[in-house]
Amino acid sequence: MTTQLTRDAEELKALPRAGRRAVVMTMGALHEGHATLVREARRLAGPEGQVVVTVFVNPLQFGAGEDLDRYPRTLDADLALAGRAGADAVFAPSVDEVYPGGEPQVRITAGPMGERLEGASRPGHFDGVLTVVAKLLHLSAPDVALFGQKDAQQLALIRRMVRDLNFPVEVVGVPTVREDDGLALSSRNRYLSGADRATALELSRALRAGAAAADGGAAAVRGSARGILEAAAKLEPPVLLDYLALVDPSDFTEVPDDYAGEAVLAVAAKVGTTRLIDNVPLQLGAER
Ligand code: PAF
Known about the structure:
Elements: E1 4-6, H1 9-14, E2 21-26, H2 32-45, E3 50-55, H3 75-85, E4 89-91, H4 95-98, H5 118-121, H6 125-140, E5 144-148, H7 152-164, E6 170-174, H8 194-212, H9 218-232, E7 239-247, E8 261-271, E9 274-284
Parallel strand pairs: 1-4, 2-3, 2-5, 3-4, 5-6
Antiparallel strand pairs: 7-8, 8-9
Bound molecules: pantoate.
């Protein structure tokens, strides 16, 4: 199948459509995790429908001192991977194409959920994410949009935006793809040296230990995961923990010790010069 590359919003809007359209939004530097999203998009769109992959490194969601300039840009490889996974079209616009009026004056505000965890560490990040997701939804007009559960807070906020602002789209979350040794796939993994990567494995190890302690309740989950991260803080290079949180997936507030129901154990840490996030969904106590 040939995958059409378009950089132009009008051209994207003019793509012929039949059946269902599924969109996978990315910032490029595609890996097997993205390929899984595209394959699932293909399945949901069906042979008659279309799969559109967007590739856009969105300046609005990067803070000062973050990795906007060094974020990997690998469009040729992205196009090939998207095509192999079943995409019909790749929309890779320039910054001017997405923000023709310069920095947008009017933006989506992520609200309180957007100020917790990732939002506390990266002020304004989720406003930038939701603003571009809203724009890309308008431009690509999909029936279904797929996002990875690796960015669990982002996924929860997109679901919330779609519900609160009546976007006519179904949002589908796709489970995190991991290397055999547990490392969650991420475009930022390419920044890791061999030693960084060995240390980075402690994040998924901590999450697995936390999940394995779920029968003991929230305190046991936090304690198990924290124990591994405390030991990992003494490695070389160390895990420099930003947060470890056990949260309610509907609003990303910390759950109490007697909590029963679905939860997300989330971690963010710096290893070497790279900031990594990971999470695992789990069930605590009796189902509510
Ligand atoms: O998850 C990402 O890659 C980005 O945050 C997204 C959703 C493409 C918006 O820029």
